[in-house]
Hints:
Strand content: 15-25%
Radius of gyration: 17 Å
Largest sheet: 3 strands, antiparallel
Distance between the termini: 20 Å
Order of helices and strands: EEHEEEHHHHHH
Strand order of the largest sheet: 3-4-5
Shape: elongated
Helix content: 40-55%
Number of domains: 2
Number of strands: 5
Amino acid sequence: xxxxxTQQSGSWRVPAYRPGDDEMWDKLGSxxxxxxxxxxxxxxxxxxxxxxxxxxxxxxxxxxxAEALRSIPMGRLENLPAALQQAKTSxxxxxxxxxxxxxxxxxxxxxxxxxxxYYRMFAATTDKPTKAIAEHADxxxxxxxxxxxxxxxxxxxxxxxxxxxx
Length: 166
């Protein structure tokens, strides 16, 4: 996950690891990534599962309170590596992304895979991925909700939590 340059996803910054620049990061090791901008005054250090979108380690520095912990959008955090795989800004990436649509003759599982991919990409950059997909695809919000429900039923996305992206 650690790249040679600073990357961004929305207002979040993922700086490049430089040994000696950050004492906490040096203690955690280069397998971790730092994230700035999730919450003012707090730097997150995150370690991800290489096989699936899951956070396997989380360390915070700064004013760590119950409120601060609750404010961390874990769904977006889990999906951040997928968003950062692109070397473009999120605006450039989404401008080039083909709007999500069912393709005639496409197998339902294939479409559910694409819905899950789009959902993860949008969830990594916004707290409202369903709305963002609907706007990007120029389809009603209810249509996208049904696509996501179908993807969840097919096991392409984990069960949802009301009000939480991811």
